Amino acid sequence: MTLLEVNHLKKTYATRFSNQQVEALKDVNFTVEKGEFVSVMGESGSGKTTLLNILSTLDKASSGEVLLEGKNLADIKDSKVSDFRRKDLGFVFQDFNLLDNFSIKDNILLPLVLSNTPVKEMEARLLPIVEKLGIANLIGHYPYEVSGGQKQRAAVARALITQPKLILADEPTGALDSKASQSLLETFEDINEAGQTIMMVTHSTRAAAHSNRVLFIQDGIVFNEIYRGNQTVDQFMEKITQTLMVLVNRGEQHD
Amino acid sequence: MTKQLFAKLAIKNIRSNKQIYVPYILASIATVAMFYLMTSLVYNDFLMERSSLLPMMFMLGSVVIGVFSFIFIMYTNSFLIKRRKKEIGLYAILGMKKKHVAFVLLLESLITSLGSILIGIISGQIMGRFVFLALNYLLKFPVSMDYPFSFVVALITFAGFTVIFFVALLYNISQVTFSNPIELVKGKQSGEKEPKSSIILFLLSVIFLGSGYGISLSIEDPVSAILYFFIAVLLVIAGTYLLFISGSIFILKAMKKNKKIYYRPNAFISISGMLYRMKQNAAGLANICILATMIIVAVSTTAAIYVGTEGALESRFPYDHNATVFELKDAEKMSEFENLVRTETENAGLALTDYSSYRYETLSGNLESDTFVVPGSSSGNLVPGEMMLIPQEDIERMIGAPLQIEEGEVAVYHSKGPYSASTIELAGQVHPVHQFTDSSVKNKVEEQLKVIEGNNLVETIILVTPSVEGTDSIIADYVEENPELFVFGTRAIIGWNTTGTEDDKIANSHTMDKILNEEGFSTMLDSRDANRQEWYSANGGFLFIGVFLGLLFTFGAILITYFKQVSEGYDDRDKFQIMQKVGLDNQMIEKSTRSQIIWMFFLPLLIAVMHVAFAFPIIQKMLLFFSVTDTTLVVLCIAGVVLFFSLVYWIIYRITSRVYFSIIK
């Protein structure tokens, strides 16, 4: 079953000081099946972040469409956008984006509180998630009292607690050491196996190697995609590296 | 060479941190100007001429503003240094020594503080002159009010604020010295810990407030009211700070514990946000509360004095013409005086419409249970009271009914409430107290004696004696007991009304005064109409001072509210951006900040109103100095000022919260 469908997505920016148009996305097409764990890779400036912003409704496409379960994101009314973001999407950011004035528990509950969820239900949902993520003993602490890896787990818990259709992760391992990264990626695999659809933007081949499929974006189009199939993480990583080499060479040929 | 480099760096730093330095410098200038204005009033000739009490009050005001300035500047400074920690940490990482960083901070502080102090003094002087001119014009004041530049005040301001800025600098340097560069770079991110609620502070605040309120409630006479007022003010100020610091955390924590309340979108965002920075928040709220209280008290009391002028004139001068005639004792002389007044009024072409007179003798001392003790004989009460002795025939004439006070008996009136004992001891002699059998006569006598007491400022006992001789014998007993006792001698208070215009009456009063004294009556004659102009001018002066202080404090309140909103706006911006990413819409942001309004707006105002309510008794006592006796009038003035100030504060709040929204969006 197709969860996300992106058709002929195009995004152009007018730079502030000239009339020159910058094309961030030219013509992006891909689909994500329910239960997939997809990575998006590409160099800086390739359009990854723009794509993620459009998917998360923080930005609007110039043309083309994004369908989530067949529903066009552009059709969501402005007043419902926040609701949509809160209920249907979960976010994991590079710099965690936890709030210092809330305890870990309250940070995780934030989206539920904003949706006026009854206290009983909130607590019922909280417990299994924090146990699965191994932060059950930390929920009384404040973000500045825990490590980066623990913060990111809390952020994942916050993304999961609304039971979203899709989790969008933007460089989730970018601020973590290799051990914490490894453990977070394993967590991603676990929750993906439990049925959660994840789309992750990353620079790291190791991170991408944990997903089922990798999309390569360059110059505003999906340049290539590879599937993991039955490969191990290391095998898949090898393959991703090769593909990236091709990408780089192709870039040089252009110049 | 290096020094020049540091100077350049200091200037560059201020420039590149414009966004936070401009409000900081503006706020510093404003506090300096406020302090200068307040202190200059202590030395202002126009105000000194009003009342000897005023310089003392302004001195207190200066101290309050001084303390307020200190807290406020430390608060804004800590906000500033917190935002700059990253930059300072970077200097250290790039290889600047700590002493060099301290030197740069010193230079920056020199530039900003000297600039703020100088501009503050200049703008304080300009503002003071402008406000004096404006109010002079508005109140159409007969005497000119001058606002000269005072070198002494400028010097005091300069010295005081140099100290304040120096302490702020020391704080900044200690922040840099006692932390390593990595901590500094992360400085802004490391969150402030949630404050602990302290039950001891809360109890202290209750004790301070309770004793402050207790003073106000227990004060019995105006003279002690003045003596204890300042102590009560200081207690309440201290209590307010502690109450906001401990009480607000206490309440917020309790609300946070209640899951049903806490886990609602608005409460969730606002409670956690407020708790997070409650220490600063509490100080800000307490400042606003104290300023609001001062505004309400200053403006409403002076307004009551001004509006109550007519009533005060009537209570102080019950008749158009009021004479105190010394050594007037015989009934014969009394009628001679009356005839003279009657003839001279008719000679002036006016008619006598009302005439009243009574004779009295006074002794100072206090009532101790059922004994009237004159000072020097036994214990010395701090504030001596007064006893008036009036013969019953004069009271009979005034109320138009016979009394039957027997030889040796006296009727007793006490300003502190009914006198219940059946006897009264006067100079060792026990006199039975006359009990009125006819209750209507009793009421009439009491009413009349209350008018005679005329809201005396001290404890007053009035004895109605059987006759002039009866009065004399009581006085004689006291003199026998204490031969050095000073006795005034019998005087008569005589008042009469005449027909004619205000000018007629004033002119008549002048000629009458001359004639009466020429005819051998040692008379002090006061015309109500002649006094009216004088009183309105004096009371207008008080109103001016009240409005001036009101403006000054409102200005302070604007400053705090504005700075609070700006600093919180910067603090909250990142927070709201994160929340928007996880699905908070603008509507909800506005809603949640609106629920903070309840705290920001209503809490300080509510507590200020509570302070004013408890201060009411002591204020009322002090207003007796200005002959303001009309309680309803005072209540109306306070209510009016509270409403008006709430409106002004609401407008300030709306405007500054717009600044807040523009920052966080």
TrEMBL record, chain A:
The answer to keyword Cell division applying to this record is no
Q: Which SUPFAM superfamilies match?
A: P-loop containing nucleoside triphosphate hydrolases (SSF52540)
Gene Ontology cellular component terms for the protein in this record: membrane protein complex
Q: Which Gene3D superfamilies match?
A: P-loop containing nucleotide triphosphate hydrolases (3.40.50.300)
Q: Which UniProt keywords apply?
A: Amino-acid transport, ATP-binding, Nucleotide-binding, Transport
> Which superkingdom, per the lineage?
Bacteria
- Would I find Nucleotide-binding among this entry's keywords? yes
Annotated GO biological processes are: amino acid transport
Q: Which PANTHER family match?
A: ALPHA-D-RIBOSE 1-METHYLPHOSPHONATE 5-TRIPHOSPHATE SYNTHASE SUBUNIT PHNL, LIPOPROTEIN-RELEASING SYSTEM ATP-BINDING PROTEIN LOLD
Q: State the family it belongs to.
A: Belongs to the ABC transporter superfamily.
Name the chain's protein: Putative ABC transport system ATP-binding protein
User: What lineage, starting at the top, does this entry show?
Assistant: Bacteria, Bacillati, Bacillota, Bacilli, Lactobacillales
From TrEMBL, chain B:
**What does the record list as GO biological process?**
transmembrane transport
Q: Please indicate if the UniProt record lists RNA-binding as a keyword.
A: no
Pfam families associated with the record? FtsX
What coarse category fits the chief subcellular location reported for this protein? membrane
Q: Which residues cross the membrane?
A: 21-43, 55-80, 101-127, 147-171, 199-219, 225-252, 284-307, 541-563, 597-619, 631-652
Q: How does it sit in the membrane?
A: Multi-pass membrane protein
Domain ABC3 transporter permease C-terminal: start-end pairs: 61-181
Keyword terms: Cell membrane, Membrane, Transmembrane, Transmembrane helix, Transport
Q: Which GO terms describe its cellular component?
A: plasma membrane
Q: Keyword Transmembrane helix, does the record have it?
A: yes
InterPro entries under this entry? ABC-4_Integral_Memb_Prot, ABC3_permease_C, ABC_permease_BceB-typ
Could you tell me where this protein is found in the cell?
Answer: Cell membrane
Q: Which family does it belong to?
A: Belongs to the ABC-4 integral membrane protein family.
Which PANTHER family does the protein's record reference?
ABC TRANSPORTER PERMEASE, ABC TRANSPORTER PERMEASE-RELATED-RELATED
**What is this protein identified as?**
Putative ABC transport system permease protein
Q: Which organism is it from?
A: Desemzia incerta
